[in-house]
């Protein structure tokens, strides 16, 4: 495939660009994932809570691609945190996907007020040791949550998947990850396609390179070293979003995008999400 890999801290290779399927209904996921696989995507990002692990798995099976060429990520939902519940939830996800192993399993949210992410992660370590998961990681963890995991468990997370786009650039968290050998994976890399793709600075850079604003934003992530998982169900956009490996942004472009940071989240704050 045309997407270069990054090497995770345990030596596993992960494509730097994958296909996200949040908000894609199960019966549409099969078609969307099939379109993505045809376009050259080899990494798929789903989650138990997305309700589309079955559709995703059907597309994978129907593709006829060798399993080892694919990189499949799924995530443990909040209600299933805790050691035993995690083992059960993983089994359910694996069955829905129709797979023998997943490449990356993530704790979807830390839920610090429930204080179960350390036990949850210990179940991840067991599943990893049993060969059912190639790399284990987390999502939406703040550095303080990662510090605690690293102190109380033995496998440093391979990945932290966080909200990251030009309006929320996460500089401090990216630096923390780099210091710990944790890969930064950007969710909502296109800012959910809302105002971001109309920002004049991004539109101007797109014109300059004869590319689309979405391609410019994805290219910015790639040059920063982020893993990205843009979502679309539109075939032309699915193709457009992977076609970002044959041009480069220059220093002036990168500086103009850096200037767009507003520390503005589209999603919940991990420090408080899940508090009841
Ligand atoms: P995104 O930033 O990928 O934006 C997707 C939207 O942008 C599309 O629905 C469409 O409206 C638009 N779009 C896509 N391609 C376009 C193009 N080429 N031109 C114009 N518009 C385009 O948003 P997302 O789906 O929120 O995030 C991507 C993935 O990240 C998700 O599918 C999911 O896999 C993951 N995610 C994870 C979490 C988490 O908590 N871990 C949270 C949200 C999303």
TrEMBL record:
This protein's record includes keyword Chaperone: no
Pfam family, one: Aldo_ket_red
InterPro entries cross-referenced by the UniProt entry: AKR (IPR020471), Aldo/ket_reductase_CS (IPR018170), NAD(P)_OxRdtase_dom_sf (IPR036812), NADP_OxRdtase_dom (IPR023210)
Coiled coil: none
UniProt GO molecular function: oxidoreductase activity, acting on the CH-OH group of donors, NAD or NADP as acceptor
Active-site residues annotated for this sequence: 50
TM regions (residue ranges): none
UniProtKB keywords: NADP, Oxidoreductase
Site (Lowers pKa of active site Tyr): 75
Top-rank lineage group of the source organism: Bacteria
Domain NADP-dependent oxidoreductase: 17-262
Binding residues annotated for substrate, in chain numbering: 108
Family designation: Belongs to the aldo/keto reductase family.
Protein name: Oxidoreductase
Organism of derivation: Streptomyces cyaneogriseus subsp. noncyanogenus
